[in-house]
Amino acid sequence: MTSTGESAGPRRVLGIDVGSVRIGLAISDETCTLASPVATIPNDPRSLWTRIAREMEDRQVERVVIGLPRLLDGSEGDAADSARAFAAELGRRTAAPIEFWDERFTTTIAERSLIESGVRRKRRREVIDSVAAAVLLQNWLDARRIAAARPSR
Fold first, then answer.
1. CATH code for the domain of 50
2. Is the dihedral of CA 87, 93, 99, 104 positive or negative?
3. pLDDT digit string (tens) for 6-19?
């Protein structure tokens, strides 16, 4: 702990998959190498923001990556508008930087992974959003690592 009471340890990145019914949360490890599912929570404003604030504080989140749903042609539709509105509200509630990441196919990838792991349909419904959040966060982490490894010109 520092003199201000804040932890001086490594901080993490929170991945968020915004859905109209549920929100999936995932967290990076302290080295920003691996993303893991955390929770799927109801998209209910009465409890949502308190839960996200608690997760960010408990997990020492320094940055947030929000999935930006794009259409197959790369354009944005209503779901992207919802994700941007969610990010704007989160931005009013936190000082942490917020980034968007293309989340096309993350739910499909998460679903296939859960099926291959033998997860039953009812359980898949309960965890799919957090697994999709982990997929999008892992993609973001991997892209940053690849970009950092490229030689500068």
1. 3.30.420.140
2. negative
3. 445 568 999 999 98
